[in-house]
Design goal:
Largest sheet: 6 strands, antiparallel
Helix content: 25-40%
Strand order of the largest sheet: 1-2-3-4-6-5
Order of helices and strands: EEHHEEHEEHH
Distance between the termini: 46 Å
Shape: globular
Number of strands: 6
Structural class: alpha+beta
Number of helices: 5
C-alpha cells in the first residue's frame, strides 16, 4: 500500500531484494515530485542500506514500513520493522577491508545530516536518517499560489499601533 499526502509518503513491503529496488525507485520519484532532485542519490542509498539490514537481520518477519517526510528544511527517511533488537554500527577497525557487509549504518551516517534508532515498544524499532533540503528546492515543492504583497497603509502607521521595538537590540525570550 502506498499513500501520497502532500509531504509524506509511506510504503509497506516485505524487505526482499526485488522490493528494495522498487522502494528505491518510489523514493526517487517522490523526491522528484517534491523538486528535491539533489537529495535523490543520498536518500536512495540510505533507504537501500536500511532495507538491506531488515532483509538480512530482522526477525520474526521481513515486513517493514518506509516513510519519507518533508518538514520545512529537512527530509526524514525512516524504516520501521518488527524486530525489537537495535542495530549497532560496526567499528571501522573491526570490519575487514574486503568484507561485503557491515558498513551499511556507517554509509547512512556518512551521507546523512543525522541518523538514529528508537525502539517502538513491543512492535519493533524505527531506524531513521535526515537530509537537509536546499531552501530553493523546498520552496519549489510547495504547491501554493503565488502570494501578492498588498500594502494599503504605510508601514510607519503599523508601527505606531503598538510599542516601539528596536530591532537592532534583541530582546530576551521569557524563560
Amino acid at each position: 500500500m502506498i499513500k501520497y499526502p502532500s509531504r509524506h509518503c509511506t510504503v509497506e513491503l516485505q524487505a526482499l531484494p526485488s522490493r528494495i529496488g522498487q522502494v528505491r525507485r518510489i523514493v526517487s520519484a517522490q523526491l522528484r515530485y517534491w523538486h528535491l532532485d539533489a537529495l535523490i542519490d543520498r536518500a536512495a542509498l540510505g533507504v537501500t542500506e536500511l532495507l538491506t539490514n531488515v532483509h538480512q537481520h530482522a526477525q520474526p518477519d521481513k515486513t517493514c514500513t518506509v516513510e519519507i517526510e518533508l518538514l520545512l528544511d529537512r527530509l526524514t527517511v525512516s524504516v520501521h520493522d518488527h524486530d525489537p533488537r537495535l542495530p549497532v554500527m560496526a567499528d571501522a577497525e573491526g570490519v575487514d577491508a574486503l568484507a561485503t557487509c557491515g558498513r551499511g549504518l556507517a554509509m547512512v551516517a556518512a551521507v546523512s545530516e543525522s541518523w538514529g534508532v528508537r525502539p517502538d515498544g513491543d512492535a519493533g524499532k524505527v531506524v531513521w536518517f535526515t537530509l537537509p533540503t536546499p531552501v530553493a528546492a523546498a520552496r519549489a515543492g510547495v504547491s501554493r499560489p503565488p502570494q501578492r504583497a498588498v500594502v494599503e497603509t504605510p508601514a510607519r502607521r503599523l508601527a505606531e499601533v503598538g510599542a516601539r521595538v528596536d530591532l537592532r537590540r534583541p530582546e530576551r525570550a521569557p524563560a
